[in-house]
Hints:
This protein has 284 residues and is mostly helical.
Amino acid sequence: MDSSQLFGIAMIAYLLAAAFYLGLFLFKTERIGLIGTLLTLAGICAQTAAIGLRWHESYQMGIGHVPLTNMYESLVFFSWCTACFYLALEYRFKTRVMGVFVMACVTAAMAYASFSDRIDSKISPLIPALQSDWLIAHVVTCFIGYAAFAVAGALGLLYLIRQAAGNRPERSGPSLADTLPSLRVIDDLTHKTIVFGFIWLSAGIVTGAVWANEAWGTYWSWDPKETWSIITWFLYAMTLHARFTRGWQGQRIAWLAMLGFVAVFFTYFGVNFLLSGLHSYGSV
């Protein structure tokens, strides 16, 4: 069995997990949610093994390097980080129902990496700019932040769904949205997740600047990827500033969490496919 087959198994596990989490949302049966959790755990285990095997395969080809160097590998790593972060959040706060949104995002990332014609999944030699000890530090810190922001965006969507259901004047009984945590709990989780992601994104920008100086002789060159990274950082910084100094919460933070993830999405995908620059190697 090679790494691509294990990645396929992980993707199927995540897809089934999303389906069972949806069943929890629809039928409010805790046992269904437990199956979703176990499938998520199984997917993480399979994907962890696949990442390790792909790393080993690169050494067998004589070009050994950590599997974090192209769009395929970064998508796979993003999905793994997101699944791990979600599972930790579920374990810590005992809230399974948000898994339907998060695992759908994870499955979509895995499916795009596996089936898109625009992404080459072959293991390739590193270009000179990527041959640095800073590669792992920069990519890992950035993608842990991205994973947290993906979950925060899903939480923002959950908040708006829960709020909309609670505001309907014609409600005469329980609704599907009643399976969601309270607005206060979702708002608190969104805030904590944004703080966590902001810390890691900050670390990612710092390590990226150090790496850029090593590779290109300058800490900052206003490359499109760098520019959008700092735009995203300022967006989340303003969100946290508004929370701490102006007391913003609830719907405002939910919308900002979703807007922030749109910025993350463009920083990751839009820059790679629409703009050219020093980071163009990330689009292949």
